[in-house]
Design goal:
GO terms for molecular function: DNA binding. This protein is of the alpha+beta class. Helices cover about 55% and strands about 20% of the residues. The chain has a single domain (about 5-75), classed as Ribbon-helix-helix fold (Orthogonal Bundle), CATH 1.10.3990.
């Protein structure tokens, strides 16, 4: 598992964009999307729409993943 960010392309609102996340975040983000019967593009679009415009998409995805993990842990 690499600690360096890995760039992947996503499609948001019909436009391609690149997002760099560490492997662990990509793995967990994909797992959350599958768990919710969504594509990673759909889940990223939801995060993109609700995020603070001053916060980047990659940071917003990381926070989303962390919040999801913490909520799952706390039951």
């Amino acid at each position: 598992m690499k600690g360096r960010p890995v760039k992947h392309s996503l499609t948001l609102k019909g436009h391609r964009t690149s997002v760099s996340l560490e492997d662990l975040f990509w793995l967990e983000f994909r797992r959350i999307a599958r768990e919710n019967n969504k594509t990673i593009n759909a889940l990223a679009s939801e995060i993109d729409v609700s995020r603070d415009p001053e916060v980047g998409l990659a940071s917003s995805i990381r926070v989303f993943v962390l919040q999801h993990c913490l909520a799952s842990r706390d039951g």
